[in-house]
Amino acid sequence: MPHRRGLSLSQQWLLIAVVTLVPMLALVAYASWSFYQQMHTQRLLVDHSDALVSRQSGLNAQVRDLERFARQYRLLRDVTFLEPYQQKRDAILTELDQLTQLFEGGTSRRIERVAKPQQSVVYGALVALENTLHALNDEAIQSWQDEEFTEQLAVLSQRRSALDEAVSEYVAVLSDRNEAALQQILWRLSLLGMISLPVTLTLMALGFWQMIRPLRRLSSAIRHLGHRDWETPIRVTGPRDLQALGERLEWLRGQLLAVEQQKQIFLRHVSHELKTPLSAIVEAGSLLQDEVPGPINARQQNVLRILLENSQNLQELIQQLLNYNVITHNVTVEDRTVAMEPLCARITQRLDQQNLRHRVTWDYQGSPGSLNGDTHLLEMILTNLLSNAYHYSSDGGVVRVRWGVDQSGAWLSVADQGPGIHPNDQDKIFQPFVQGRVRRHGSVHGSGVGLAIVKESVARLGGSIELTSAPGEGSCFLLRYPVSEASRALPISEAST
Q1: Do residues 263 and 369 both lie within one domain?
Q2: Which residue intervals define the domain HAMP in the entry (predicted)?
């Protein structure tokens, strides 16, 4: 057994599932990473904003205390108020240094990218407030006049207010930029989702197509086996499971081919062994009927008639079986011009001679007088259709044969006035060895392959056959098959019964 490569069917299904899930998994991974980064940045922003607001609130309280100590000292000129002023001033300068360090080295690069301009404004306000506090030293407070002192306190208050506004604006910008970054992430995820969905569907379609191809080849191989194409080797590629199934089908094809070859040998042998003695019996019966050996009486004539009729029927059955065996194999179709009237006359004459006591009226005509097609196939079609019409028609019945050419190709119809075919039998009678429930005239039954031969012959011509029948109203078989453009140029006639 040849070595099978590739994945099994289940492994290939798993691979297709994994490949089709890659875009969605990548999208989920990117979404998780983006949201993680956004949450980390947001946490840093929140911590930074809380620290900044907290220090800014404490700084405001200390600046207000500084202003109060300065006013008390200027009002009472008591040195006891100067010491807490100095302490508060030193504490504010320390707080300013810490705030400055928070902006210079304590912020994250993400925060700098988000609100660097506003960060510069806050830093400038801090520097301005620090410079103002340096100007409010002890010597300055003691030496300033009231107007200068009031002016410096007003500047201090303005610088403090400017710092408050800068910090508030800075915090607001951080919040806005964080919200904008979140919206941008959502937009990117939406865009990637719209891209990944068709990519996933495309990968899924390609995967299914890759899976369906070997299944179609397998289906085609089975169909060829069903159509008796046992000469073409079967080779199925794809998953290992389907390769194994293809190998079993190849084995089955070999077995069917061997059986068919044995059947052909058997039929050829049996037909030869049967036809030779049967021909001798028919010939001897004919000699007796012609009274060559001597005269025979009426009773002997009756026995001889029964012998000859059954011998001829047996010959017909053997020939039908041989014809069916031939037609079900690859037959070479030769396109020739077939004269229809002489063909019909020859077949009807042969049928009339089978039973001199059963007579029907033959009515055959068509335009043009000939059809293009395979001579042997058309003769087998007409022989079987006319034989059916002859054996199922009552005495004196009319069998009509019409033919012609139209835009769709050539057509041929045979209609009789027999008992018709039961509706339940109409779908079965084209199968081999199947007969309808209505008995035909005569003591010998048919072979059951006549209409099967007709169907196979029409199929070889590339056409189709239709049956119109009703119990008690007769039957009409209409077949159509394609012909060349030159044949269609002949005079056109209508199909009729």
Answers
A1: no
A2: 209-261
